[in-house]
Design a protein that fits this description.
Elements lengths: L1 E2 L2 E2 L5 H31 L6 H27 L3 H18 L1 H16 L7 E4 L2 E8 L3 E7 L19 E9 L9 E2 L21 H15 L1 H17 L6
Helix pairs in contact: 1-2
Length: about 240
C-alpha cells in the first residue's frame, strides 16, 4: 500500500480485513462478557452464596479470554507453520520480559488446583494477614486485619493491634506462593488454639485457681469443643494428623 508515494510495508487489503475483523471480535467478546455477567447476576440474585457469584464471574472472564485469544490466533495465523513459529518467539519473549507476570499467572492456576485458599478465607500471604476478597489472574486482594506488635512485619507498620479490619485493601502478587508459605486460618480447620496468661501470685492456691479455670472453660466451650472435634476428624481423613 502506498501513501503519498511512500510504500507502507505489511499494510495491504488482506491485513486491513484482518484488522477490522479483529476489532469486531474484540467488541463482540466484550459485549458477550458483560451480557454473561449480567445474566449470571440475574440468575444468582436469590442466592446468598457470595463465593458462587464470584467464581461464576471468574469462569466467564476465563472463558471469554480464552475465546478471544483463540479467535485472534485463527485470524492472524491461518498457516500452522507460521503459528508454531510465532508462538515459539512470543513465548520466549514473554518468558524473558514478563517473568513476574508469567509466574503470577502460574500461581493463579496453582492456587485453584492446589486449593491453597479461596475467596472468603482468612490467610497470611506475603506478610499480609486478612480476608481474601478477590482473586485475579495476577493478584490476590486481601482486606487487611490488625496484628499484635510482636508479630507485625508490615511496611508501613499497622496501627491496629486487635483482630479487626484496618481499612486497608492490599493486593499481593500470586507469585508469592512460590517464595513464601501461605497460612490459611479457615479452610481445612476453622479453629485456632489460643493461650491466655493469667498471673497468679506464689501465695495463692494454684490448685484451686486451676480448678476454677478448667470449670469455667468447660462450661463455656462444650459446644465449641464438639464442633472442633468434628472438624478435626474430617481433617484427619485428609491429612496425617495425630492426637496430641
Amino acid at each position: 500500500m502506498d501513501l503519498s508515494g511512500i510504500r507502507l510495508v505489511g499494510i495491504n487489503a488482506e491485513n486491513g480485513q484482518k484488522l477490522l475483523l479483529t476489532l469486531a471480535i474484540i467488541a463482540v467478546v466484550i459485549i458477550l462478557r458483560k451480557a454473561l455477567i449480567e445474566l449470571s447476576s440475574m440468575v444468582l440474585r436469590g442466592t446468598h452464596n457470595e463465593k458462587t457469584r464470584f467464581w461464576t464471574r471468574q469462569a466467564v472472564s476465563l472463558f471469554t479470554t480464552i475465546a478471544l485469544i483463540l479467535s485472534l490466533l485463527s485470524i492472524w495465523f491461518d498457516d500452522p507453520t507460521r503459528l508454531a513459529t510465532a508462538l515459539g518467539l512470543v513465548t520466549a519473549g514473554l518468558a524473558f520480559a514478563l517473568q513476574q507476570v508469567v509466574t503470577a499467572i502460574a500461581g493463579y492456576f496453582v492456587i485453584l488446583r492446589g486449593s491453597n485458599f479461596s475467596v472468603g478465607d482468612r490467610i497470611t500471604m506475603g506478610g499480609v494477614r486478612g480476608d481474601v476478597v478477590a482473586l485475579g489472574f495476577i493478584q490476590t486482594t486481601i482486606m487487611e486485619m490488625g496484628q499484635p506488635p510482636t508479630v507485625q512485619n508490615a511496611d508501613p507498620p499497622m496501627w491496629v493491634r486487635s483482630r479487626q479490619y484496618t481499612g486497608r485493601v492490599v493486593t499481593v502478587s500470586n507469585a508469592r506462593i512460590f517464595d513464601e508459605p501461605v497460612y490459611n486460618y479457615t479452610r481445612d480447620f476453622p479453629y485456632l488454639w489460643e493461650e491466655i496468661t493469667l498471673p497468679i501470685s506464689y501465695t495463692d492456691d494454684r490448685k484451686r485457681a486451676e480448678e476454677i479455670l478448667l470449670e469455667t472453660a468447660q462450661r463455656h466451650t462444650v459446644e465449641i469443643s464438639e464442633m472442633s472435634q468434628e472438624s478435626l476428624d474430617a481433617m484427619r481423613q485428609r491429612y496425617f494428623v495425630q492426637s496430641t
